[in-house]
Fold this sequence. Notes:
Number of helices: 1
Strand content: 25-35%
Largest sheet: 5 strands, antiparallel
Helix content: 10-25%
Shape: rod-shaped
Distance between the termini: 88 Å
Amino acid sequence: MKTTLIKSSLIGILAVAGLLAANAFAATTTGQFQVQATVNANCNVYTNNLTFATPYDGSSATPNDSTTTVGVRCTKSTTYTIRADAGVTSGATLATRLMSNGTDNMSYNLYTDAGYTTIWGDTTGGTAEFSGTGTGMGNLINHTVYGRIPISQNLSPGTYTETTITVTVTY
């Protein structure tokens, strides 16, 4: 029994010594690497139709006003501008946009301010654009568009429509 205990102890000591010797001869080396990602400037535009809820009354002394919003989501710190065209109704300009009902046209315009003094357009002819800076793609920034139908228009009854105002975001 004594010999078995001595053998077991000797085997244990040799095993530990072997491990220590193996670790004494082990070598290590290290390296580094870089992690990199690129974020490109990006914007998305969200539009809502503009509907004049109150029917137009040609005998009223008060213009017919309404609002809508154009929203933008842009990457953080990305500057942008929002421009609008005159629409597709024949004869429409930025100075006088038109809605049509058959052969009749109703004048109206879009503005960047609640005072209806600055026409929203492409910066030509005294028109203005909206501008801003993105706060991240998860944050929608809304810009209010003010619509106005001026007084004293001779119009036939019916629904007047501008089918397409194109909104362009440049960033």
